[in-house]
Amino acid sequence: MSAYIRPITAEDTPLVVKWRNSPSVVSKFIYRTPLTEEGHLNWFNTKIKTGQVVQFIIVEKETETPVGSVYLRDVDNVNRKAEFGIFIGEECARGKGYGTTAAKLILQHAFKKMNLNKVKLRVFADNASAIRCYEKVGFVKEGCFKEDVIIDGTPYDMVFMGILKSQWKEDE
User: Fold this and answer.
1) Which residues form the domain of 7?
2) Residue 161, domain member (yes or no)
3) Which of 25, 87, 119, 123 is most buried, judged by most C-beta within 10 A?
4) What tens digit of pLDDT does each residue of 60-108 get?
5) Beta carbons of 106 and 72 less than 8 angstroms apart
6) HEC secondary structure over the chain
């Protein structure tokens, strides 16, 4: 199965809100406050429309079914960097390679279209499947911050990863 990415639109709001509020997606995010349609539209209007965030919907090619989202946030054009984020919202679409494909496509967008020099990410240290996916597309571990975030009173270690334009291989 294969996937492509398309720019997010305001019409995607109900789907993104549904995905972001599903327990399996929320558990992988640092920010866990329930997302509302109003909150997402605010994000869309203040972050995406202003270029601070570049966000796409991941679409399964054969059925044209949206399955998740991939984005670059905190776009810093001065230092030519941004932070990567992704989630597969449809549980039936997980483990099928859509995330890997979307990560490759957004890195291509970051380095070729946006001329970024670095894409970075943060991931919970115990999220081994995500770390494997990120390594598969070329991200390297840059460090582990012990007990970096506290959620509901529990501290979590965070792995910081990055990829430089000079390290990126388009066919990875």
Assistant:
1) 3-120
2) no
3) 119
4) 999 999 999 999 999 999 999 999 999 999 988 988 999 999 999 999 9
5) yes
6) CCEEEEECCHHHHHHHHHHHCCHHHHCCCCCCCCCCHHHHHHHHHHHHCCCCCEEEEEEECCCCEEEEEEEEEEEECCCCEEEEEEEECCHHHCCCCHHHHHHHHHHHHHHHHCCCCEEEEEEECCCHHHHHHHHHCCCEEEEEEEEEEEECCEEEEEEEEEEECCCCCCCC
pTM comes to 0.92
Distance in angstroms (rounded) separating the CA atoms of residues 135 and 165: 15
> Which CATH number goes with the domain that contains 86?
3.40.630.30
Residue 148 in domain: no
Q: What is the pLDDT of residues 104-155, one digit of tens each?
A: 999 999 999 999 999 999 999 999 989 999 999 999 999 999 999 999 999 9
> How many structural domains are present in the chain?
1
| CA distance readout (Å), 70 to 23, 84, 98 | 18, 8, 10
In a domain, 125, yes or no: no
